[in-house]
Amino acid sequence: MLAAFALLGLSACSPAAPQGPETKTLKVVYQKTDSYTALDDVLKAAKAEFEAANKGVTVELEPIQANDDDYGTKLALSQRSAETAPDVFYEDTFKVRSDVDAGYLLKLDSYLASWAEWGSFTDAAKAAGRADDGGIYAVPLGTDTRAIWYNKTVLQKAGIAVPWQPRTWDDILEAARKMKAADPTLVPFNMYAGKATGEGTVMQGFYQLLYGTGSTLYDEQEKKWVVGSQGFTDSLQFLKTLYDEKLAVTPAEALDANVWKRVFGEWLPKGRMGATVEGSYTPSFWQKGGAYEWPGYAKDMGVAMFPTQHGRAPGGVSMSGGWTLAIGAKTENPDLAFTFLSTALNRKNALSFDVANSQIAVRSDVAADPGYQAANPFVKDVSALVSVTHFRPATADYPRISSAVQEATEAVITGKQDPAEAAASYDAAVKRIVGGDKVIEK
Amino acid sequence: MLSPEGQPSLKVRRAGGIRRRLRLLPVLPSVLLLALFLLAPVAWSFYASFTDVALSGKAAREPAWIGLDNYARMFGEPGFPLALWLTVVFVGASAIAGQNILGLALALLMSRGNRALSRAVGVTVVAAWVLPEIVAAFAAYAYFSRDGTLNQLLGLAGVHGADWLYAFPMAAVVLANIWRGTAFSMLVYRAALADVPADIMEAALMDGAGGRQRLFFITLPMIRNSIAGNLMLITLQTLAVFTLIWVMTAGGPAGASTTLPVLAYQEAFKFGDIGYGTAVASVLIVVGMVFGVFYVRLLREAKQ
User: Do B60 and A416 touch (CB under 8 A)?
Assistant: First the structure.
């Protein structure tokens, strides 16, 4: 027992011991999975660059191997105490405001003011890290849009002309039914649903529908959450049709958190799936060095804009998100942390991240780079969607509202509730989360 | 542990106050450790359940005291009563009925069966228990999943199996927990049956008692202590099962296999609502305590 205590004592002391004035460490926490190593590569390069320029400072890279949801949880847990909080970390844009409210993020305004390269970031990119107080707390690595990715061969076999561009929701259903009739073993048109796929469910699914009905999740003018909207029920009804007619994956497959791996790795490359709604980062999985290399993707795949419900202007919908780097509010070395952050986001590193991860560039100098424009054949198509894109409501309550939306989709595709019931449960959940005075009937 | 004996020592009572306290000294470190690692988190969990502490947002920085709001919310939402009911079903079906009765039956059969056979059965059953929980959970997942062993076997027989984890999630996790936990009950009952004196059995046999009569009037009453003890242990173990369910179904689909531990985890760490999650966990502790008190009483009655 004494020995155990001695050991505990030793292991607790060892990381603290070398923190003299000469040797400092920066802890960098980020996500890395079997199919996502682009950031790991960039941060390793940044570490070498940074350590060469700052003698005596060690960068400790601590990748967390988890999906987006679990990564967020683990990061938040580590931020609850100053001893475990990272100095620099990878943060989803939709969590920035919520985490600023929690006091986890350091305000970067004074550092950004003296960083020459900040000027090359687009205005939208600058806004991505802005919190309710107007200050900027995070710097984006890249952004993304969502589109319909379809397998041309599968569509042609069903007698659908390519390039394909559905104009309404009914066009999608019609095409999907044609594909199903041509080959009943196919998955004609997939949209994620349920809690297992987390933000993927809403970004690559429900919001594509909702924002095309003319309705919205959050009224930016009134600063209130929308409840009781017909668009919400209609969107659930569309998912129900898709799943009930077996046009999407089975509900059991949809509730598997790894379903997207089969979409990218199996169904689309093997011609077992007609189309899916996915992000602009899709080519990163198929290009050379990606998790599911597929040399034929440039020829076989096509991109279409997701249509609005009845085809009303602007004729299409997309959703944008993206990830940032931020600095912990409790860091002991804010200057060094910012130096590392700016190294990781410099032109060279941002370019290699955007190319490797098929991100839409947020630095104008990267966007103009020929290497970026030639990164994959779809860069132009998905970048054009920026004109019809929407952003998630950037409020601190958003992450919990998103969970409520995911729950509604799960209830509908499993048949537990019909769309009207699920929408009513969602309304009740929203009122509970934000309070009755912060909702608006629309 | 299952048949506690021993008289209260008179010497202790006679000893002086200081000496008595000194005698407690060796226990002190373990009491402190228990308080630090067990009691403190439980106390914190109870405390947090009265606040709105969250993983992110304003409530993460300055959690507010909200009294019984979290508990009131439980009964206003369909999620909690369903999880409570599923927990009762899970404990009732997989522990009290499944593991307990199957374990007893196996022990009885093994005590009179042929030696080689009973040894083979014993090894097979204990194998599932020896597996670490995560390994057992993956094995059960591989067995019940869509393209799993069960459906492959059914396919050989020409039957097209269902998607068990999706269509019958509760049945799948209950069966998996029976498979995993029966060995414990079996071992407890084998030890207990070995302690039933042979001469009493013989006497009953001489008096013309049939097999069923011997079981209900002699064997079961004699191992009553072990039954109560075993029930208490497996109930508390099963109440806390998380990994098995999380790996197999993650509580889904649409909450159809979400027991209280799964609900508490989801609320606290998936939805970031630590206050509500700890409130669910507190209810779980209370449920465990209710079962505990019930079985301790049963044990006490058994002794008299």
Answer: no
Are A21-140+323-358 and A146-320+394-441 in the same CATH fold?
Answer: yes
User: Are the Cβ atoms of B58 and A101 closer than 8 angstroms?
Assistant: yes
Pull the structure tokens for residue A168.
């309404």
* pLDDT tens, residue by residue, B23-52: 888 888 998 998 888 889 889 999 999 998
Nearest to A252 among B60, B146, B250 (CB): B146
Domains, chain B, in order of start with CATH, read: 72-303 (1.10.3720.10)
The answer as to CATH 3.40.30.10 being correct for domain A21-140+323-358 is: no
Tell which of A96, A98, A99 to mutate to test the B interface (max B CBs under 10 Å). A98
Q: What are the sequence ranges of the domains in chain A? A: 21-140+323-358, 146-320+394-441
What is the pLDDT, as a whole number, of residue B304?
Answer: 60
Q: Which of B44, B56, B273 to mutate to test the interface with A (most CBs of A within 10 A)?
A: B56
Check whether A165 has a pLDDT greater than 60. yes
pLDDT for B167 beyond 70: yes
Out of B60, B163, B250, the one facing A102 most closely (by C-beta) is B60
> CB distance A252–B272 less than 8 Å?
no
Q: Is the pLDDT of residue A432 over 70?
A: yes
B141 has a pLDDT exceeding 70 = yes
What was the pLDDT predicted at A2? 40
The pLDDT tens digits of the residues spanning A374-406 come to 888 999 899 889 888 888 887 878 888 998 999
- pTM, entire model: 0.81
Q: Which CATH superfamily is domain A146-320+394-441 in?
A: Periplasmic binding protein-like II (3.40.190.10)
Using the predicted structure, report yes or no on whether residue A292 has a pLDDT greater than 90.
yes
Picking from A73, A255, A432, the nearest residue to B252 by CB comes out as A255
Return the percentage of chain A with pLDDT > 90, whole number.
65
| pLDDT attached to residue B275 | 92
User: Lowest-pLDDT range, A170-184, A277-291, A393-407, B89-103?
Assistant: A393-407
Closest-CA distance, A70 to chain B, in angstroms, reads 8
